[in-house]
Amino acid sequence: MKPIALFTLPNCKWCKEAIIYLKSKKLKFNQIDLTKNASALKDCQKRCSGAPVILIGNSWICGFDKEKINKELGIK
């Protein structure tokens, strides 16, 4: 399984949805709070304009997009 990093912001509705979804699929992921990690915030801002940002292997997904997540992980 490819490593999953989930970059989130506090009080972000879609970030919470992403966490719930990944947990429901029993996927292990590393959650990074962008308010506490300036270098991660800069990396995410280069690629995406909002949160959540999901990094699966080397593929960046901007926003909570179930189809892209599933496709990248090869799950349904």
Structure description:
The protein has 76 residues and is of the alpha+beta class. The protein has a domain at 45-76. Helices cover 39% and strands 22% of the residues. Strand 3 and strand 4 form a beta hairpin. It starts with a strand and ends with a helix. Residues 4-59 form the Glutaredoxin domain. InterPro entries: Glutaredoxin (IPR002109), Thioredoxin-like_sf (IPR036249).
Secondary-structure blueprint:
Elements: E1 4-8, H1 13-24, E2 30-33, H2 38-47, E3 53-56, E4 59-62, H3 66-73
Parallel strand pairs: 1-2
Antiparallel strand pairs: 1-3, 3-4
Q: Runs with pLDDT <50, length 5+? A: none
Outline: globular
Strand order of the largest sheet: 2-1-3-4
User: Distance between termini?
Assistant: 14 Å
Total number of β-strand segments? 4
In round numbers, the mean pLDDT is: 96
| Biggest sheet details | 4 strands, mixed
Tell me what portion of residues adopts beta-strand conformation.
15-25%
Oligomer: single chain
Order of helices and strands: EHEHEEH
InterPro entries: Glutaredoxin (IPR002109), Thioredoxin-like_sf (IPR036249)
Domain Glutaredoxin: 4-59
Pfam families: Glutaredoxin
Protein name: Glutaredoxin, NrdH/YruB family
